[in-house]
Amino acid sequence: MFNPLVKEYRGRFGHGRTMADILAWVEDLPPMPDVIRRALQLVDDIKTIPEELARVIMLDPALASPILRCANSVSLGQQREIATLEEAVLVVGMGQIKTMLIASALRRWNGSFGPVQRLVWEKSLGAACGARVLCEQLNKRYRDELNLTGLLHNLGQIVLLSHKDFGKVYPDVLKRIRECDEDFVTAEREIIGFSHPLIGALVARKWDFPYSTCRAILHYAEPCKSIADEEDEKLAVLKLAAEIGLTLGFGRPPTYSLDPEELETLAGLVGLDPAQDDLKAVMSEIKTRFTSEVSAYS
Question: Does 295 score more than 80 pLDDT?
Answer without folding.
Answer: no
